[in-house]
Design brief:
226 residues, alpha/beta
Length: 226
């Protein structure tokens, strides 16, 4: 993980060996206090073996690149998948998916937030239509914009130093994209594919399907928010 931001001593990072257009460098697995793992990642034996003897498993959402390894990790460690752990605040952060949550942790003077795919270490997250929701995502980003100076430990990509700054950038980016979609519709776009060709013309072809998912979610949002 390339980052100029140092991790707090109570957090350990493991990068899963599943890089790709949708996963960036791979899935970030986080071990907190040596006892709780967040997003075990894929069912890769070597990766799961590096996690260590944890007791609790938390997941930010149920996409396979984050949770595929959970059953095997339970077998290896005897850990239990749980919805919450004492001392870790669970924040509902829907948008990327309806079930997305983030975990806010304060230890001494350090505050960190584990954001899954809600805030990535670089670029912007896909709104995974039909499960994802643009209105919910915009509200989530407004909420996270209040976390000034909180370090972001994302599901993919490098650590970010300031949750508020990242969330504000993403919120502005999403609102700008919505305006671009509105403009594409005014110019005669009639289908999600038409909008993708206009608004996401510069996107890597490997992730065009992800752009189409987001466009479908954007069109759904604009039907309710003309």
């Amino acid at each position: 993980m390339t980052t100029g931001v140092g991790l707090p001593s109570h957090v350990r990072h493991l990068l899963a060996p599943n890089p790709g257009p949708m996963t960036l460098d791979g899935t970030n697995t986080w071990v907190l206090d040596g006892t709780t793992v967040i997003d075990p990642g894929p069912a890769d034996e070597a990766h799961l073996g590096e996690i260590g003897p944890v007791r609790s498993i938390l997941v930010t959402h149920r996409h396979i690149d984050h949770v595929e390894g959970v059953p095997r990790l339970v077998e290896i460690t005897g850990a239990t998948e749980v919805a919450e752990v004492e001392g870790i605040e669970v924040l509902p952060t829907p948008g990327h998916t309806r079930d997305s949550v983030s975990f806010l942790v304060s230890r001494g003077g350090d505050r960190v937030i584990f954001t899954g795919d809600t805030i990535l270490g670089r670029g912007s997250s896909v709104v995974m239509w039909p499960d994802g929701d643009v209105a919910a995502y915009l509200e989530t980003l407004r909420t996270l914009s209040g976390l000034d100076g909180v370090m972001v430990l994302p599901g993919h990509g490098p650590v970010l130093p300031d949750c508020a700054a990242a969330a504000r950038w993403l919120l502005d980016h999403r609102l700008e994209r919505l305006e671009q979609v509105r403009d594409a519709l005014r110019r005669g776009a009639e289908s999600p594919e038409d909008v993708v060709k206009i608004v996401y013309a510069d996107v890597d072809p490997a992730i065009l399907i992800a752009a189409e998912w987001t466009v479908r979610a954007q069109l759904e949002y604009l039907r309710d928010h003309p």
